[in-house]
Specification:
Layout (H helix, E strand, L loop, with lengths): L12 H19 L11 E6 L5 H12 L3 E5 L12 H11 L2 E5 L3 H10 L4 E3 L7 H15 L6 E5 L4 H13 L2 E5 L11 H6 L3 E3 L2 H5 L4 E4 L11 H7 L7 H4 L7 E4 L11 H4 L6 H20 L1 H5 L10
Parallel strand pairs: 1-2, 1-3, 3-4, 5-6, 5-8, 6-7, 8-9
Helix pairs in contact: 1-5, 1-12, 2-12, 3-4, 5-6, 5-12
The chain binds phosphoric acid mono(formamide)ester (CP) and norvaline.
């Protein structure tokens, strides 16, 4: 049966650790200029209904580094669900390519594509989740702080796609997660069981969220598709800026994280984003390595299996 990578809830903890270990290994090979063309002759179709820098470049570069080829299909080209039904797009693409990546609005579009495609589908961001970003963030945390399951992460900002994926990550990897969101911007109710199971703290007080944190994470206040709400959001999120004052409540030397793109001077100040504790460019770099691991896993599961024993969960 084919696997997809649409969220973190449908991978096991062993797979999660193995993917991170495989990504680290692939990263060291890139650094050592070693080639690993496991996907020679394989093709990836990338469907984008929203803009992107990191996601597009890292999938395209990653596929090339693995010996394969990626094709960019922008918002005006395919018209998924408009020019042609999701089902027909899925069935056509499945006849030509080995793998599909989609960035879209409704998460259901990604799920339907995955259901209808006979090839694996990767979620490159929906309004609900951004699992590839989370894998890159977790790899970055591991590189800088070691064991994930002893870390306290504060997410300060909108209870939207990134916050939801952090809840899934906390549930899967056993991180301590504290979400600080303005009233009315808390995570979607459907995450309540996972919030409870993972013991996630949700507060409307950003200082409480950040208290004692090993890493402080933020995301834009106005996500793609919400542009018309930008002025209201700037008002509602004003007290949630990640700045020097707020960071005083975190652990000394707490890591500063952001998925990017950043809106400098809004959710984060320049001095913090560019400061010595910022790991935002490591997160961006790690998109490349984790997505190579994800593509390899989906197309050559035996490669991931070699990393599974070494990734045995500790809990
Ligand atoms: N973090 C992220 O997904 O960046 P892009 O929107 O540029 O792809
Ligand atoms: N929450 C942001 C993330 C961008 C990577 C958005 O959806 O626009």
């Amino acid at each position: 049966m084919k696997r997809d990578f649409v969220d973190l809830s449908s991978i096991s903890i062993a797979e999660g650790h193995a993917l991170l270990n495989l990504a680290s290994w692939l990263k060291s090979d890139v650094k050592n200029q070693l080639e690993h063309p496991y996907l020679r002759g394989r093709t990836l179709a990338m469907l984008f209904q929203k803009p992107s820098l990191r996601t597009r470049i890292t999938f395209e570069a990653g596929m090339a580094q693995l010996g394969g080829h990626a094709m960019y299909l922008g918002p005006t080209e395919v018209g998924i669900g408009e020019r042609e039904s999701i089902k027909d797009v899925a069935r056509n693409l499945s006849r030509w390519v080995d793998l599909i990546m989609i960035r879209t609005f409704a998460h259901e579009t990604c799920l339907e594509l995955a259901r209808e495609a006979s090839v694996p589908v990767i979620n490159g961001l929906t309004d609900l989740l951004h699992p590839c970003q989370l894998m890159a963030d977790l790899l970055t945390l591991k590189e800088h702080r070691g064991d994930l399951d002893r870390l306290r992460v504060a997410f300060v900002g909108d209870g939207f796609n990134l916050a939801h994926s952090w809840i899934e990550a906390a549930d899967l990897f056993g991180l301590e997660l504290r979400l600080g969101c303005p009233a009315g911007y808390e995570p979607d109710k459907s995450f309540a069981p996972r919030v409870k199971r993972a013991g996630v703290l949700i507060t409307n007080d950003p200082k409480e969220a950040v208290s004692g944190a090993d890493a402080v994470y933020t995301d834009t206040w106005t996500s793609m598709g919400q542009e018309r709400e930008a002025a209201r959001r700037r008002r509602d999120f004003r007290a949630f800026q990640v700045n020097r004052e707020l960071l005083k409540h975190a652990k000394p030397n707490a890591l500063v994280m952001h998925c990017l793109p950043a809106h400098r001077g809004e959710e984060i100040t320049d001095e913090v984003l560019d400061g010595p504790n910022s790991v935002v460019l490591d997160e961006a770099e790690n998109r490349l390595h984790v997505q190579k691991a994800i593509m390899l896993w989906l197309l050559k599961p035996e490669v991931l299996e070699r990393w599974t024993d070494r990734a045995a969960p500790r809990k």
